[in-house]
Amino acid sequence: MFPLLRRMLPAAVLAVAVTLTLAVPATAQVTLAEAEEAYTAQLAWYQEVLRQRAAVLETHERLVEQLEAALRERDQEVASNLQGRVHDQGLQLLRWETVAERESELLRNAAQNLLGALSRRQDELSEQIERSILPITTARLRAELQAVDQRYGQVSRESGAQLVPQLIPVPEIRIDLRDSPADMRDKADFMESRAVLYDTIVVSIEREIASRERRLRATRGADGLLSDLSRFDDDLLTGGGLPRLGAGAGGRAETETPLVLADLTLPEQIAALRLLREQAEEFRNLARERAEAFRARADGPGTRSGMPGLRSGAES
Amino acid sequence: MRARQGVWRRCGSAFLLALAAGSMALGMASPAGAQLAWRDFVISGGIATEGYQGNLEAAAVTVRDSADLASAVVGEFAVRGDLVAGLGEGRRARLAFDGGVRQYSARGFELRDYAPREWAGTMDLSLTQAIGQAAAVAGWVRVRGREVEDRPPMPLFLQAGYRSALGGLRAELQPGEHRWDLEVRGEFTDFLAPAFAPQVRILDRRTAGAELGLRPGWDRDGSFRFHVGGTFAHYPEQETFLAEDPFRRDRVVHGGVSWSRESEVFTQVALEARANRSNSRRPEYDAATLRAIASTAVGLDLSVTGYLALTAKRYRFTTDAVRLIPGEEANSATQAYIGLSRGLARNLDASARVGWVRAESEIGGQYFQRFGGTMLLNYRPGF
């Protein structure tokens, strides 16, 4: 599944942009601290496995070079000795390859748990920012939200756990009767920054759609020609044509979960990305509208320093 | 009119019945709430002009004509689709079909002008069950029918009509980084011989075979698959003229490797070798075929596709009466096609293609050629 994922989701741009604000479906309900601890430990062990594998590979390559040199010099005794060592080292390499594959899968699972926990924390922080009264508290929460966003992006990148993305909705930050003009402008700036982020995501998604449409055209071109040749047996003149995509009477067994974008067919991926783009555009427009509303209120009459405990609650 | 009804009885109705049966089977197998999804559905129509060269003998054609060159205008209509139903718990059903008709208006023959019509239809039905995260089993059936009306003499070679049924079981297993697959399959094919050409029935065959495949989990660009397999074939209407072993029986061993890469340049290359051994000396041969296809989008909403197939073949014994059947015995053929397609609307694209085929006739060592151009419109409702 991993090579497939790498092939079909090469867009680091989308990963960077989307992962800043995206959430994954909740998996196991572990706490953020537990998920972070499990992921960090698994990542450290996986990196250790990769180091061990690299060391074995280096030794293996060095032995192979020595063996080739011995064979060139027709030194049978040395060559015979080296052949055995190359064989042993090859077996070790194979074992480490298997371990690396297994640990990679475990790392992906740990990453998915952590991404789920980070996503839930993002939701909590957004709600807390909405409810916060003191500017110092709001600033602290925003800083934490930013850190969580960055951690989300980092985990996504280093684990490769890119699932079908879901956008985080526009935060429900409201106008409070106690807000000063500065608070309003602050909220407007926050909403504007969200709108800019959604804009970036829209552009990234459009690039992804365009890339997949080109791939789809190439795939359909090949599939159409092979279909035309096999339909009337024109390909039988050479004993049968190439297997058609998705054909082969049994077809490829599909055991992976469809939650991973790369496992969807290209038309399904394009449809999913189009939906995501529409949603991102809606969120961008909404964020921009709210930013304008905050700014209008900040610059207009009727804004004053709020009284503790009072919230309008109706405006958004 | 009567002839056309016959075609529907033999081929079209078989295909439609198979399609209906497949749909019913899929429907019956789909519990409430099963997710049905069209992976593709394409309606195609177009026109082609083709030329043919090679005044050769053909065992399955009753009429001979002295023309060495002939030409035809061909109209074509086809429908194909691929429907998948997710049945839950790792179970999936798939129905794929592909059918069409080609009407020729041929010129250049000495005897008369011919107007052959080809009907062909294929339906695949499969059921796949995942077993855990690393294994799956699948059962599949395929029915196929083909009919040709007003079959012309050479050099316009058209395969004879037939009906066939295939079925198989397939298992896939990925214990580590490599993915293994094993398939056993059987086939039953009967050719539709007109009363005045019973020799066509010599192509009737029953086969059983198995293939083992390996997709290495190499971290390389593209995906490889190695395969090896064997097939037993029995030809109940083809005599060996040996009293102790009167009917032809073949054993085919094949193996090869294929490589495919799905990116903005789609590429697929396959190399396969096969050895055919028989209780009859005549059809014993060794052959190797290289096939490649590449397709890519080139801007302006255009995509270009190229296909090439080359076969080399060597007979084990020289006989006076080498009467091999094109398409049935890995003939030495070279095929080359190149095409351009362009999107005209969201669901509609047009394609233009030129092609050339040079293939061995039924008399070993002699070749006929086919060349021409095709214009097609492809409509994908809902895609």
Q: What would you say this structure looks like, in words?
A:
- The complex is a heterodimer of chains A (316) and B (383).
- Chain A is mainly alpha-helical and 316 residues long.
- Chain A has two domains: 1-25 and 163-230 and 257-316, no CATH class; 26-162, no CATH class.
- Chain A is built from seven helices and two strands; from the N terminus they run ααβαααβαα.
- Chain A has helices at residues 2-8, 12-21, 32-72, 76-131, 135-159, 181-231, 266-299, and strands spanning 22-23, 166-167.
- A two-stranded antiparallel sheet of chain A has the order 1-2.
- The longest helix of chain A has 56 residues, at 76-131.
- Mean pLDDT of chain A is 71; it is low at 1-28, 245-260 and 303-316.
- Chain B has one domain (2-379): Porin (Beta Barrel), CATH 2.40.160.
- In chain B, strands 1-2-3-4-5-6-7-8-9-10-11-12-13-14-15-16 form a 16-stranded antiparallel β-barrel.
- The longest helix of chain B has 28 residues, at 2-29.
- Chain B is globular, with a radius of gyration of 22 Å.
- The two termini of chain B are 37 Å apart.
- Residues 1-5, 7-11 and 20-33 of chain B have low confidence and may be disordered.
